Fold this protein.
Amino acid sequence: MIAADYLDLLASALATEGWTARPRYDRAPELLYVLSPSLPAVGESVRVKAGVGGVPWFIDSTGNPLAPCHDLPGAVAQIGARLAPLAFAAAARRAASAEQDAPARGLIGRLRASLGRA
């Protein structure tokens, strides 16, 4: 198998877990950009590199090994562990912002809003 084949398998496994994966095979090294649908500006770039004994590994953007290419669940878990906290934080910020932008409820809330004390 070549790097693109391993990255395609990883992309499929990531999609089943809700991640977005965008292949970038037009330049060397071939990369797979992994993004959270809720936070598309932050992600992880994954490439394939031969490890000890020639075993191919998924490597992150900083050069750290994620998992051997035959361990798709392990690679998905490693990527999720890195990106999930960022996605959760972004979702919490959006929820807090939406709560602040929501119209005031009830008489007291409307009075506070009209007085600028919401």
